[in-house]
Amino acid sequence: MGHTSREANLLGACALAVAERLPVAAHDAALVALAGWLGGASIEALARVLHLTHSGAVRLADRLERDGTVERRPGVDGRSLALHVTGAGARKARRLQAARLAELEQVLEPLEAHERQTLTGLLEKLLGGLTSDHAHARHLCRLCAPDVCGHPERCPVTVSARRSGVAHVEHPD
């Protein structure tokens, strides 16, 4: 077995610890994305962002519609349907994002202000390096709060996507 750096091992443990504090169902990720940059997207676009099959995305949209958080409206070409959050859906998405950010703030609590600043720069660099293409960028940002990350000017995913010639992540397909 090859040598693994301590940093990689610590990053993996930290990633798991954070992920366990932020369990997110596809239902929640869909609602947050549709309440923001993915609003008005088709079922196909939702499926790509969440890495679902088409039939899985249809079932998810059906569930969101039954919950009263999403409604289907005519799409851009008249043959497709566009997904839009309702008022109740927008409120739930805001609550989900607020709870997510509060949990992440607790994770960052042990850090001093200068350490958080250093971490911010490192996270921006890592996220920029992780952005491989348009689809991956959209998947990375499915739970983002664009106003918090500084989208579009300071968002490391969007900035990296632009540099690599990838289209803006904020526009639905």
Please characterize this protein's 3D structure.
There is one protein chain. The chain has 173 residues and is mostly helical. It has one domain: Arc Repressor Mutant, subunit A (Orthogonal Bundle), CATH 1.10.10.10. Helix content is 62%, strand content 6%. The chain has helices at 6-21, 26-35, 43-50, 54-67, 87-108, 113-130, 134-140, 146-149, 156-163, and strands at residues 70-74, 81-85. A hairpin with a 6-residue loop joins strand 1 (70-74) and strand 2 (81-85). Helix 2 (26-35) crosses helix 5 (87-108), helix 3 (43-50) crosses helix 4 (54-67) and helix 6 runs parallel beside helix 9 (156-163). The radius of gyration is 17 Å and the shape is globular.
Helix/strand layout:
Elements: H1 6-21, H2 26-35, H3 43-50, H4 54-67, E1 70-74, E2 81-85, H5 87-108, H6 113-130, H7 134-140, H8 146-149, H9 156-163
Key phrases:
173 residues; mainly alpha; Arc Repressor Mutant, subunit A; two-stranded antiparallel ribbon
Largest sheet: 2 strands, antiparallel
What is the 3D form?
Answer: globular
- The number of distinct structural domains comes to 1
Secondary-structure element order, N to C: HHHHEEHHHHH
Helix segment tally: 9
Q: How much helicity do the residues have?
A: 55-70%
- Looking at CATH, which topology would you report? Arc Repressor Mutant, subunit A
The CATH C-level class name: Mainly Alpha
**What class do helices, strands and sheet pairing give?**
mainly alpha
Just name the CATH architecture: Orthogonal Bundle
Mean pLDDT: 88
Estimate what percentage of residues fall within beta strands. 5-15%
- Count of individual beta strands: 2
